[in-house]
Amino acid sequence: MRSDKINKIFQYLSSAISNPTTELKYQNPYTFLVSVVLSAQATDKSVNAATKELFKIVKRPNDMIKLGEKKLRSHIKTIGLYNSKAKNIIKLSQILKEKYNSKIPKNFESLTSLPGVGNKTASVYQNEILNMPRIAVDTHVFRVSNRIGLVQTKNPDETQKILESIIPKKWLKSAHHLLILHGRYTCKSQNPLCDQCKVIRLCNYNNKNEEDKKNISS
């Protein structure tokens, strides 16, 4: 896709989404990291509901260690995969305390070495907390970027690599959130709201549908 078209897509998205930021509720870098770990295969809404009470008593790694895995599970039991997430969060909290003096490491390799922190989680953290121009690819970003035609990829890692290389520098910081929020509320997995879409004229998905309609009617 041409760079001028990519630029227009993000211009339109930014005009439709006035506050492209995370919908996760957090108090500091540590609670944000915990929230992102919990958000894997879960909605931000469900994570916020679970952490509302949790973050009243847990604000740093040592608080989480004192809480313990059993009590943590009781706070997050409404979230998918809560057993494995509880184990990972306790382990990463112990590592942060023992190895990093309870600070979150900044570099990508150190982040992804933490239990429960993969490529997507590390990229989300770096984008939101460290203001780095990373494009974490979740199901929304993967679907939207392929539907629109920004990429033609088969997996999230490939998608991230290409997006970070083709999106103009001015949009790199906000692109992650723009694509997520567009996918969450407009370009939905089922029954996308194409009639409400700001980028419909630039979208491969819509253009393909229009071409199919012409072929059927002819």
Query: Strand pairing plus helix content: what structural class?
Result: mainly alpha
Whole-Å distance between the termini? 29 Å
CATH homologous superfamily placement of the largest domain: Helix-hairpin-Helix base-excision DNA repair enzymes (C-terminal)
Q: CATH fold name of the largest domain, please?
A: Endonuclease Iii, domain 2
Mean pLDDT: 93
Q: Identify the CATH class of the largest domain.
A: Mainly Alpha
Please tell me what the overall shape is: elongated
The CATH architecture of the largest domain can be given as Orthogonal Bundle
What composes the largest sheet? none
In terms of per-residue confidence, which ranges show pLDDT below 50 for 5 or more consecutive residues?
211-218
Percent range for β-strand residues: under 5%
Q: Give the number of domains.
A: 2
- Helix and strand element order: HHHHHHHHHHH
Radius of gyration: 19 Å
Please, how many helices?
11
Got a strand count?
Answer: 0
Please summarize what this structure is:
The chain is mainly α.
Can you put this structure into words, describing what you see?
Residues 211-218 have low confidence and may be disordered. Helix content is 64%, strand content 0%. The radius of gyration is 19 Å and the shape is elongated. By secondary structure, it is mainly alpha-helical. Helix 1 packs across helix 10 (169-185). It folds into two domains: 3-20 and 135-217, Endonuclease Iii, domain 2 (Orthogonal Bundle); 29-128, Endonuclease III, domain 1, CATH 1.10.340. It has eleven helices and no strands.
